[in-house]
Amino acid sequence: MKILLVDDHPVVREGLAAALDGRFDVIGSYGRAEEAIHEAARLKPDVVVLDLELPGLSGLDAIPHFHVPVLILTAYGTEEDVRRAFDAGAKGYLLKGAPLDDIARALTAVAAGETYVDPRVAAYLTTRTAFPRLTAREREVLRLIAAGDASKTIAGKLGIAERTVKFHVTSIFNKLGADNRAGAVAIAAERHLL
Question: Is the domain of 68 the same as that of 158?
Fold first, then answer.
């Protein structure tokens, strides 16, 4: 199986390439997504192992440009990070520090068209209290609430009516199971929604 690595830390790329040697064929190693996208078209890897945080084009934005399965290998494992990566087209998600056997399993699964999620991330996500997702606008309102802004100030910043802000606040409370602004902010912070 041919693997292409994309991470801005040379020591991570070199260490991973050395660890995978003998199990997989690492055909390329790049520090920037732009370079990796160009080379992937030429090298035709079976799987791209990609970090989310990269200089220039982010790993998240790069995912759709690879026309092969993408396995995310990153230090970031919030629900939002995972959701955004899969929404962008990633087939697997691993946290840095994953055991080599987990990386090998993930590569094999992703190459076979299956989805793979780091057991630590999966356990974290499944033990969370389920509630409906906040919309993009609700997240904006919530961030401004966390900053201490009143409804009128939020309305001015977002260019919407104050009653619309109040509608969003009520929806946020209902979705998070909060009784007030402080409670909503506390719950959101605990669930890494801010």
Answer: no
